[in-house]
Structures are given as C-alpha cells and as structure tokens.
Design goal:
Layout: H1 4-22, H2 27-36, H3 40-43, H4 50-53, E1 62-65, H5 71-80, E2 87-90, H6 93-102, H7 106-109, E3 112-114, E4 127-133, H8 141-154, E5 155-166, H9 172-181, H10 194-203, E6 208-211, E7 224-230
Parallel strand pairs: 1-2, 1-4, 2-3, 4-5
Antiparallel strand pairs: 5-7, 6-7
Length: 242
C-alpha cells in the first residue's frame, strides 16, 4: 500500500517538472498563467456564483486546495467579507509567488501556503468549506482518495467540499485529444466523470455526495465534472445544497 509520504514524494517529483514548465516563457505556460489569474472568468466562470448557489455567509471558513494565483480566495472573500481570512494551498511555489504578487490585501496574503492536498497541514474539523478545482486530473486513484480523505478530516461538522475537474465526453478519441490539451508538464492527465469522483468520495467514507453540476465553464471547451461532498451531522439540512 502506498503511504502518504510516498504519495507526497511522487507529487513533489512531478511538481518539479511542472514548476520548471510554469516558469518558462513558452506559449502554453504563458496561457496557463493567464488562465490562473485574469483568465479565471473564462476557465472557472461558475465560481462567481458559488457564494449565492451555496448560500454562504461571512462566517464561512474557507480552504482552497490548488489555489493557484488566489483568484478563488479573493472572489469569495470580496463577495462575503469573511470573518476569518481564507486559506489557500498550492504545491507550486511559482503560482504562489504570482498569487502574492496579485494580492494587495495582507490579511489574505498571509493565508497562502505551499503544501500538498494529500497531506494537509491543518488540524481536524477546521473549515466549513473546502474548494478544489482542477487538481484531481493530476492524481491517480490512490492519491485522489488520499486527497478526499484529507478534505474529510479538515471539514467541520456540517461542512461541505466542492470539487471540479475536466471530465470525459465518452468519445475515446476526443477524450485523448482533450487530455493532451489540458495536460501540463510532468503530469499524466486522468479525466473522470462525476459518478467516478463520487465513488472515490464514498470509498473514503463520505456519507453525503452529490453532483454539483457547476455551470458555466467557457474556456477551454472541455467538459467539467463537479461534485459536492460533506460530513453533515444528523440534523443538518442537506436540502439547501440540492
């Protein structure tokens, strides 16, 4: 069985190749850096309605896994004026450097941490909301389960997590093309359906999983799969997330 330390080491090796690629001046790296920042309106359009759709308020305690340039953190914090500064982690130092450069609010900048989603450096039950976009395609099934387990560990009672990723079309040739289109240096790509992601979440013990059906995503023109998972207490009203 693969240990968390071995999973982290594997991610670190792939992360080194990704880091070198991301810092390069190639067209692909430049486009990806744009998508992580100003291009979020096109690549993650659905996040701009997340607060409304999930009925979030300023008491939300937020962790964003794979935060990139911190656009998600800034968007939700600006909308909600969170009581507790949001926290974002990313395995890439290069993207966190860009996030620090983009961030003009010291309150938020202090919450940007270099870490792996398969070994979160936080105490149990710390966050009421965990978001994770465009991370799972870089992980094999064991790593994906480790990530989901860690998300469940840091979720507070009644907390939920929203995850989204590029998904399959059902056409093998088109899926192979899409996988190449969304690949980054050093990381093989896995396109999983929402039902597959929900099964992985069930594997690690989440009692509640649902398709999130996040829309829209404008660029790139590749389908997304999105899910909501949580560990609600018995008296928790799940209907507000349905």
């Amino acid at each position: 069985m693969t240990t968390n330390l071995e999973r982290y080491a594997g991610q670190a090796r792939r992360g080194g190749a990704y880091e070198r690629w991301l810092r390069a001046s190639t067209p692909g790296a430049l486009a990806f850096r744009w998508l992580l920042g100003p291009g979020q309106w096109a690549s993650n359009t659905a996040i701009y309605r997340l607060a409304e759709n999930l009925k979030l308020d300023r008491t939300t305690t937020l962790l964003d896994i794979g935060c990139g340039r911190g656009t998600m953190l800034r968007t939700l914090d600006d909308q909600l004026q969170l009581d507790v500064p949001p926290v974002g982690i990313d395995l890439s130092r290069a993207t966190l450097d860009l996030a620090q450069r983009d961030e003009h609010n010291p309150r938020r900048g202090a919450g940007l941490v270099q870490a792996s989603g398969v070994a979160l450096p936080f105490q149990d039950a710390k966050f009421s909301l965990v978001t994770c976009g465009h991370v799972l395609r870089h992980l094999d099934d064991d790593e994906a389960r480790a990530l989901l387990y860690e998300i469940g560990r840091v979720l507070a009672p009644g907390g939920i997590a929203v995850l989204w990723e590029f998904g399959p079309t059902g056409n093998a040739r088109l899926d192979a093309w899409n996988a190449r289109a969304v690949a980054t240096e050093g990381t093989p790509v896995r396109l999983r359906s929402a039902s597959t992601l929900r099964r992985l979440a069930t594997d690690v013990g989440f009692p509640f999983t649902s398709d999130a059906d996040l829309r829209p995503f404008l660029l790139p023109p590749v389908p997304r799969a999105s899910i909501i998972v949580g560990r609600p207490p018995e008296d928790f009203d799940l209907s507000r997330f349905m």
